Amino acid sequence: MRLQQAVTLAVRRLVDAGVPGPARDARILMAEACGIPASRLTIEGDRPLTDAEAALFDNLIARREAREPVSHILGRREFYGRDFLVTPDVLDPRPETEILIEAALAQPFDRVLDLGTGSGCILLTLLAEVPHATGVGADISAQACAVAARNSQTLGLSDRAKIVESDWARSVGGRFDLVVSNPPYIALAEMSDLAPEVRLHEPYGALTDGGDGLMAYRAIAEAVPPLMEPGGRLVLEIGPTQGKAVSDLLGFVGFDGITVIADLDGRDRVVLAHFPQ
Q1: Quick check: pTM over 0.85?
Q2: Which of residues 66, 89, 106 is at a domain's end?
Q3: Of the residues 25, 48, 66, which one is the last residue of a structural domain?
């Protein structure tokens, strides 16, 4: 079978399985099976697949039919222009989180703490973008810490990034002029509405607190003030209905200059707060 024929048949399979973006996913997986950039698929569309390529592509499409995320099939996900190792032990990096990155990079910082670091994509992106900075990534999951450490090594940031197994900031010392987090903010009642790719394949504890979706913010608001440098910033990703509730929590523990930042769709996405001088 020729390459383009195989892609066309795969798209039909993914459509029948209810997979969103079937044409995109079929092309990505074909490029993976053939070991070529996706940009070459059109050029090579008329060539026959080898038996090995056809078998591998069929396996990859079967996994996607079962609603396994493409990132898990490939073992990587691009975020802010860099590839990150991902596994079922960490939350998949999402484009929306780049709003948090932009907010964090808007002002200088020297020392950053990432709470619930997961794959390390936030911490490591910030360190890669600010070459003099150092930081700590904390996560309660030993498996997530292992993924973050591997990403740190791959990106050449191990000398500036320390990964710590910690229940929020409990095992973290020192002071930071920037604290960031993308904590679990989905309420338990909302979990059934998630796509199968998320609900069945991503770590439960990275998605929801098992309650109202605000428990992580309460823990962070309590834990971070002793770790903040005067004038330091706290930047948190939030769910689209949580701007006021999270802002109120941070104001109650003494943060000021609190701002809610919307994403490109106009939904609340990030809360930015300043620790008093």
Answers
A1: yes
A2: 66
A3: 66
Could you report how far apart the first and last alpha carbons of the chain are, in Å?
67
CA distance 76 to 252: 39
Shared domain check, 60 and 149: no
Rounded Cα distance, 151 and 216, in Å: 25
Alpha-carbon distances of 243 from 146, 175, 248, 259, rounded to whole Å: 32, 26, 9, 9
Tell me: do 136 and 223 sit in the same domain. yes
Give residue-wise pLDDT tens across range 104-119: 999 999 999 999 999 9
**258: domain range?**
74-274
| Interval 191-247: pLDDT, tens | 999 999 999 999 999 999 999 999 999 999 999 999 999 999 999 999 999 999 999
Taking the C-alpha atoms of residue 150 and residue 85, their distance in angstroms, rounded to an integer, is 8
Nearest CA among 97, 96, 107, 153 for reference residue 130: 107
Q: Both 27 and 118 in a single domain?
A: no
The number of domains in the chain is 2
Eight-state DSSP code of residue 92: P
Query: 3-class DSSP state for residue 116?
Result: coil
- Alpha-carbon torsion, ordered 52, 58, 60, 61, to 10 deg: 160
CB 255 within 8 A of CB 234: yes
